[in-house]
């Protein structure tokens, strides 16, 4: 048994509005909003990296959990925009937190990386102790690679989220968590070193709209539950159109969806933990509630988790 304790998020100060992008690409602001549901997104400054953002979010999570970095048993970071091939963000984060000697590694999966990191942390925490899980992305530097396109530029933003997975019982119990991968369509969402992002939007949306609801039903079915039994759904914030489609497929009201993609854009592997952090801060992850997490991303990889909040 494991539980979540302590959440944190870090967003760059610079805001990129739809007006700025509409002017750059000579498209109507209304078009950007209609195809994505995004009004603005954040952009990292020159001195900000995935590691600095991960550190800021992680320190907030540690403070909320009343833990010192020296009390951690492991560090796992999900990201698709690491600043270098290796070592990954986790090595920089471990150094910044001054927590040497413990396992620290990356999950290089855009969008779904933090969910996969959570799943691994659930297995590691009983053996190693509290595991710091972070998702950190600076997608803007990838999107800036030529040819810079409106389809990508309007979607992505920068940021980081973090939480602690601790062993034993606790208020926010991880009842179950599952993920799956299928590399058959992996080339439709991929990134070569130094190259621009490859994203077949039609394929990504089609696969996500099928596999994400299936993953949710699977994790709920294993607990004898149905989507109607869930109080809050916190998904990877890809775009509002996809979130609404998933809610429709699951036959749940949109009011049970947590949404912040309108303010931050798609922050890839960081988005799930940023959203969960904000949901907890707003009191939405409270006693007696069932919360489902879900993500779909590079690989293709996807999955879902069931959280049960105890009184």
Structure, explained:
This protein is α+β, with helices and mostly antiparallel strands and 311 residues long. Helix content is 36%, strand content 25%. Strands 5-4-6-7-1-8-13-12-11 form a 9-stranded mixed beta sheet, sandwiched between helices. It has a two-stranded antiparallel ribbon with strand order 2-3. A two-stranded antiparallel ribbon has the order 9-10.
Features:
311 residues, alpha+beta, nine-stranded mixed sheet, single chain, 11 helices
Helix content: 25-40%
Shape: globular
| SS summary, helix count | 11
User: How large is the share of residues in beta strands?
Assistant: 25-35%
Radius of gyration equals 18 Å
**Which blocks of ≥5 consecutive residues have pLDDT under 50?**
none
Present the secondary structure layout.
Layout: E1 2-10, E2 14-17, H1 18-25, H2 29-36, E3 40-43, H3 50-65, E4 74-78, H4 89-97, E5 104-107, H5 113-128, E6 131-138, H6 140-143, H7 150-153, E7 158-167, E8 172-181, E9 189-190, E10 198-199, H8 201-221, E11 232-235, H9 240-250, H10 261-264, H11 271-281, E12 290-297, E13 301-309
Parallel strand pairs: 4-5, 4-6, 11-12
Antiparallel strand pairs: 1-7, 1-8, 2-3, 6-7, 8-13, 9-10, 12-13
Helix pairs in contact: 3-4, 8-9
